[in-house]
Design brief:
267 residues; alpha+beta; Fructose-1,6-Bisphosphatase, Chain A, domain 1; D-Maltodextrin-Binding Protein, domain 2; 2 domains; seven-stranded mixed β-sheet; five-stranded mixed β-sheet; 6 helices; globular; magnesium; inositol monophosphate 1-phosphatase activity
Length: 267
């Protein structure tokens, strides 16, 4: 990996923050995407335009995958690919919240090698490169080592505790909390503020890629709901949910989850 990949992502994320914060979330023009794909604002598009010009120009051999760019299968032929969510938590942005984030990653042969999650309104910049550890605003961070589910506080949407998701219809005993940005949830687990996070519905790669590496470099584990390691730059860029936590708690949650009998069950 070129030594400059992580600084490139950090600089681009900070520039993204400058652009996004020029818009007032509640006043930014907003549209609903077709087929119930969620909202998009003029800030999402402005950030995406900057990133799509800046990052491929700096790395012309890399592919491109972004929530706000029409997918191009050419990315599947590239060894390395940018995986970008210009604003993760668009609904929060539009409501005037401070919990939305920019999520930028580079994957190589299906594994993330550099990642940044940046919350400009909270001045929080989470970053990692493969083998280099994870940081928050330049300081090392570590995931927790909780040993039992009853001790744990886990970020998850309420439907994740539906008994149908769990063996013997017994949801785990952890304390549940929630944040709307999936990228921020993963970063909070890497930071050690929460012990784990899970989402059991199919999840887009751009929400997850940067957080996957940051959490792993912070000593945590991250997988899909079946316990399989996440791979990125797939033809269909959706993953089979995400379970992320310290090693012991991650294993406990995976063992407790039931096989997904109904892919449409909300989580």
């Amino acid at each position: 990996m070129p030594e400059t990949d992580l600084p490139l992502l950090i600089d681009a994320a900070r520039e993204a923050g400058k652009i996004a914060t020029r818009y007032s979330g509640r006043d930014a023009r907003r549209w609903d995407k077709p087929q119930g794909a969620g909202p998009v604002t003029e800030a999402d598009l402005a950030v995406n335009a900057m990133l799509e010009q800046r990052l491929p120009a700096a790395r012309p051999g890399y592919g491109w995958l972004s929530e706000e760019t029409e997918d191009n299968p050419d990315r599947l032929t590239r060894d390395r690919v940018f995986i970008i969510d210009p604003i993760d938590g668009t609904r929060s942005f539009a409501e005037g919240s401070s919990t939305w984030a920019h999520s930028l990653a580079v994957a190589e042969h299906g594994q993330v090698i550099a990642g940044v999650i940046y919350l400009p309104l909270r001045d929080l910049l989470f970053a990692a490169q493969r083998g280099g550890g994870a940081t928050l605003n330049g300081q090392p961070i570590r995931a927790t080592r909780v040993l039992s589910e009853s001790e744990a506080e886990v970020l998850a949407a309420k439907p994740s505790l539906d008994p149908r998701h769990w063996k013997d219809a017994r949801p785990p005993l952890f304390r549940r909390a929630y944040q709307p940005s999936l990228a921020y949830r993963m970063a909070l687990v890497a930071q050690g503020r929460f012990d784990g996070m899970l989402t059991l519905r199919p999840s887009w790669e751009w929400d997850i890629a940067a957080g996957d590496l940051i959490l792993r470099e912070a000593g945590g584990q991250c997988s899909d709901r079946a316990g399989d390691r996440l791979r990125f730059n797939n033809p269909n860029p959706r993953l089979n949910g995400v379970v992320a936590a310290g090693p012991r708690l991650h294993d406990l949650l995976i063992r407790r989850l039931a096989p997904p009998a109904d892919q449409d069950l909300p989580a």
